[in-house]
Design brief:
Layout (H helix, E strand, L loop, with lengths): L3 E5 L5 E5 L8 H17 L8 H10 L8 H12 L3 H34 L8 H9 L3 H7 L3 H25 L1
Antiparallel strand pairs: 1-2
Length: about 170
């Protein structure tokens, strides 16, 4: 007997769907996937098998510290460095965007601190730009804005680690 989950349709009626369709990946499963990949790579056991869903989950959550631990993240960086060129390119672009976003945020923070210390009260500057930025803000940016300063820094450091590893891999290939 499959557990059932109620979901409202567009008319507000509850439609019963199997809970299995709402499956959420266990972070331990993704960690085990990378651990087995690493073991297989070092020992040539042929036990590891590529899993597109797990790889996609890891890529989506690689900057989520609650789902991807530091140890798993370290293995993921190694895994990504050995991936195909398209995968590395996509991951590199994402990491660059996250690093740039942090640096821009950090610069704004420093400017705000400078204004507060200098007593500059001209708040009218940039209000039009700010409202346009908020209107075009993606859900990714919204979740990033929800991070505290420490979590933003951790994301930046993880992105830098990815970029540094990919750069080193690129030099080794040449």
């Amino acid at each position: 007997d499959t557990p059932q989950q109620g979901v409202a349709d567009s008319n507000g009626k509850v439609v019963i769907s199997p809970a299995s369709s709402l499956k959420i990946k266990d972070p331990a499963e993704a960690s085990s996937y990378l651990t087995l990949w690493n073991y297989d790579r070092k020992n040539n056991t042929k036990q590891w098998k590529f899993n597109k869903n797990t790889q996609s989950w890891l890529l989506r959550h690689m900057y989520d510290f609650d789902k991807v631990s530091k140890a798993t993240s370290n293995l993921l960086v190694e895994y990504l460095c050995e991936g195909g060129a398209r995968l590395r390119s996509r991951v590199e672009e994402d990491a660059k965007m996250r690093a740039r976003r942090y640096k821009e945020w950090e610069k704004k923070q420093q400017q705000q601190q400078g204004k507060e210390e200098g007593g500059d009260t001209n708040e009218a500057e940039g209000k039009g730009v700010e409202s346009k930025e908020k209107a075009t803000q993606s859900s990714e940016d919204a979740s990033w804005n929800g991070l505290d300063d420490h979590e933003k820094r951790k994301e930046y450091k993880r992105a830098r680690k990815v970029l540094d590893a990919l750069k080193k891999t690129e030099k080794e290939v040449e």
